[in-house]
Structure formats: structure tokens, C-alpha cells
């Protein structure tokens, strides 16, 4: 499940010429926000030059492919990666607090299947769970998570302030 919250005017950056696309760039293919995985130049039988783009949808992970005229421009979506602290899971919904600002909260649905069960298990264990999300085109979805052990209360009070040390980084796809 994705969370809709967006600023429609800030969804796209300035268009970019196809001839300037590179690996790891973001681009809209067939209306979907994608990350370019491979790019090549091909020439058709009628001497038209095309840019063949192989990409991955940043929200679904689905492989996408398109051939675009070399001289056209493509839309470039704004893609942000954000980090949240998991506060609670209630009725299959995660309550998240932004790691960058304490007054920013969102809700995301717990992923279905084994991935969601593992996440719930880590939340119930003695771990801090940080959810990494990708936000684009007015939608935000979980990309991965990071775990850090919870400290006992007496040690947590003595610990200096600062970001937690990542002891275990699990990327789920």
C-alpha cells in the first residue's frame, strides 16, 4: 500500500532530452516513475535513431522497457528517499515517525506475506525498526528497513544523543 500525499506542482523536474539519459537517472516510462538500468542507441531500418531504455519502476520493482526517439524529451519525476521510525503496528497498519523531524507522521500498510510477517516479528522483538521509503508522484511506499537493538532503559539514558548505529541492514524486495 502506498500513501498519497503530494504536491502536484512538485511531481516533475524539468524535462530532459533522451540523448542525455544515463544509468540510475529517473524517468517516466509509460506514465510510471522508473530508474534507468540500461540504455542503448539503436538505428531502425528507416534510419531513425532511437534510445532504448530498460528501467525498473521505483514503486513496484516491475521491469519496464521503451524505445524513444533520440531527439525527444522525457519527463523526470522527483524521487525522494525518506527514513521513518516504526512506532506501532495496529490492524496491519504501521504508524511511522519521520527520522528527520519528530512532528512528521505517516501510516503505511504492512506488506503482505512473509515479508510482512518478518517485519511484525522484528517489531515485536527487542529491536528499533527504521522504515526506508521511496516517495514519488504523490505516493510513498516502503523500500526496505533497518534494525538496531533497543538498549535497556538504564543504558538508554546514559547514551549520548545521535543517530543509531546500524548493526543489521535487511533489504527486502
TrEMBL record:
Domain Translation initiation factor 5A C-terminal: 78-143
GO molecular function, one term: RNA binding
GO biological process per UniProt: positive regulation of translational elongation; positive regulation of translational termination
Entry keywords, A to Z: Initiation factor, Protein biosynthesis
InterPro entries: IF5A-like, IF5A-like_N, IF5A_C, NA-bd_OB-fold, Rib_uL2_dom2, Translation_prot_SH3-like_sf
SUPFAM superfamilies (UniProt xref): Translation proteins SH3-like domain (SSF50104)
Residues annotated as domain Translation initiation factor 5A-like N-terminal: 15-71
Pfam families reported for this sequence: eIF-5a (PF01287), IF5A-like_N (PF21485)
Stated name of the protein: Eukaryotic translation initiation factor 5A
Organism: Mortierella alpina (Oleaginous fungus)
Lineage start: Eukaryota, Fungi, Fungi incertae sedis, Mucoromycota, Mortierellomycotina
Annotated gene: TIF51_3
Amino acid at each position: 500500500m502506498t500513501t498519497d500525499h503530494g504536491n502536484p506542482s512538485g511531481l516533475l523536474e524539468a524535462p530532459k532530452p533522451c540523448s542525455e539519459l544515463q544509468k540510475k537517472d529517473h524517468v517516466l516510462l509509460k506514465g510510471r516513475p522508473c530508474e534507468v538500468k540500461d540504455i542503448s542507441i539503436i538505428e531502425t531500418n528507416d534510419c531513425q535513431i532511437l534510445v532504448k531504455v530498460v528501467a525498473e519502476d521505483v514503486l513496484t520493482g516491475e521491469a519496464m522497457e521503451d524505445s524513444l526517439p533520440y531527439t525527444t524529451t522525457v519527463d523526470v519525476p522527483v524521487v525522494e528517499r525518506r527514513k521513518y521510525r516504526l512506532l506501532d503496528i495496529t490492524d496491519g497498519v504501521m504508524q511511522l515517525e519521520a527520522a528527520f523531524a519528530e512532528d512528521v507522521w505517516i501510516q503505511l500498510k504492512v506488506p503482505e506475506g512473509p515479508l510482512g510477517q518478518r517485519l511484525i516479528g522484528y517489531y515485536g522483538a527487542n529491536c528499533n525498526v527504521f522504515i526506508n521509503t521511496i516517495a514519488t508522484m504523490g505516493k510513498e511506499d516502503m523500500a526496505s528497513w533497518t534494525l538496531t537493538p533497543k538498549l535497556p532503559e538504564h543504558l538508554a539514558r546514559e547514551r549520548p544523543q545521535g543517530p543509531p548505529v546500524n548493526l543489521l541492514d535487511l533489504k527486502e524486495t
